[in-house]
């Protein structure tokens, strides 16, 4: 998995509330046998005209936002389905972070397992970054995961919080399964105890 | 005297293997349901990274998302060639890994969230997860159930545990007397309109109050189904005697002495009197009307008698912009009443409203009538068992004679399964998502109850089912 502690890049504003996972990547792109190429489906319906040709008006089809590494969005970004294709498509298209006032929970969790950083900032801070991007589209936003900071186009510093366990997945590329397996003994002891108390939780009959 | 606890607190603490710090916990997962769309990603990546199931008996692999619902479908028949590959890969891998597996032609086949309670796979007090955001549906029988990503799926497959941040708690109490002609779908749509599509972020949501207490399990499943539509990951109704009656004798429900033990355990799970929630909301249902969505977010919802809103009427700038865009997408103007909106398609299906009671409600309106000329009407039962039960009582005849297509069970046209057929069309739908493009490119979805969908199919426009004699 990608690991990174800091990066800086152009920020593209897409300030709409409730950008759902069907907008991020429509369902038809999920029926596939490889996760490569998901980037081509990113915001497909928004990025294309009805005849399937790219819509030059769509922000990510415009210079310099087509090279953006940070997406600025409004509240409840990533609402809807659990499709991991959503953060994967963003990552495959070069995004390292999404900055928004709030994220839907399943999307938020999925980001960390796919090298994408969801940064939750107060709405006013997101609006300042948007204003910065509109004033100076080539202006750079710098993100530091270790320091928990975003530095805006004008040099303003914003602090954000991140669950430490999820942060490690990004900065160390920590394998979550290996981390859990260090608790192997605790897991086994738990199950022995729990099975006595809730046998019906474990007994599901033969698999065939 | 022990501190009074909520249902959530009891179930959560029961499953804590260890405290990982910073409000994160390693939890025991009792049931993992894998399906051929997100589950095939889990299975493929598990194979690639050499992960094997820790507890294959606690994993159920099913086929529901991309299979064809054509009557008489073959066991490899997907909605397209790639879908067929996914079905075959999922079957082969599930069998090889030794998980439970219900094939396309198995009598137990169906939408995961429909069959999990129907078969007693989901039980009160279990942690139950699946790579599908609507997994909270099965919270309706008192499980703690939620949707996960495909990578979290690999973690669960390999360890039968999950690393999870503990959410805050919310209780929504539906009080008053539910008016005739309204149901769980109207209640949950109304709630989402009140609380907003982001209102549940970070919360586990308990549904309660007099209306929920008197509600059937199937209604509770509908209620919990749409928790994720206000971005609540977990939604549930703690178990009571209604739940216990429902689960008795189901295929995977405990039997004999184990049943008695389980029931005793379940009866201790409901929230203790005096337990507190981080947030509490009361919805008075006394004046509830059938609800229909007019936009592209489930929060854009109004009573059936209403007209399209003026975007300028929204105080919040985000909601205003969203309303403008939604009306444009829908090709609707402020001031147009629902009753003047013609529909192209009427759809009864999905994990929200395709159980037997839903089909009965729609059939009661359709009986002896015909859908309006030019309306494409489709019914996709939520499970093979629902289909069989419906056929046994003649509901299929009512649907077919009214002009509906009668399909095999599956997720079908909820998530793009009807893409080409529904392209650009306006659909009144019992599903749970009205997002742009959700049911097909340019497809305009209005969410409503099965009764409202049936009445609209007959009228050829969005219609108030209370005005059709039942």
Please characterize this protein's 3D structure:
The complex is a heterodimer of chains A (208) and B (470). In chain A, 33% of the residues lie in helices and 15% in strands. With 208 residues, chain A is an alpha/beta fold. In chain A, strands 4-3-2-1-5-6-7 form a seven-stranded mixed sheet. In chain A, helix 3 (85-92) links the parallel strand 2 and strand 3 (97-100). The radius of gyration of chain A is 20 Å and the shape is globular. By secondary structure, chain B is α/β, with parallel strands linked by helices. Chain B has three domains: 7-166 and 240-265, Aconitase, domain 3 (2-Layer Sandwich); 168-238 and 272-284, Aconitase, Domain 2 (3-Layer(aba) Sandwich); 292-467, Aconitase, domain 3 (2-Layer Sandwich), CATH 3.30.499. In chain B, 33% of the residues lie in helices and 18% in strands. In chain B, the strands form five sheets. In chain B, strands 5-4-3-6-7 form a five-stranded parallel sheet. In chain B, strands 17-16-15-18-19 form a five-stranded parallel sheet. A four-stranded parallel sheet of chain B has the order 11-10-9-12. In chain B, helix 2 packs across helix 3 (81-97), helix 6 runs parallel beside helix 8 and helix 12 (356-366) runs parallel beside helix 16 (450-459). The longest helix of chain B has 17 residues, at 81-97. The radius of gyration of chain B is 21 Å and the shape is globular. The relative contact order of chain B is 0.13. The model of chain B has no long low-confidence stretch (mean pLDDT 97). Classes of the chains: A alpha/beta (208), B alpha/beta (470). At the A-B interface, helix 4, helix 7, helix 8 and helix 9 of A face strand 1, strand 2, helix 2, helix 3 and helix 5 of B.
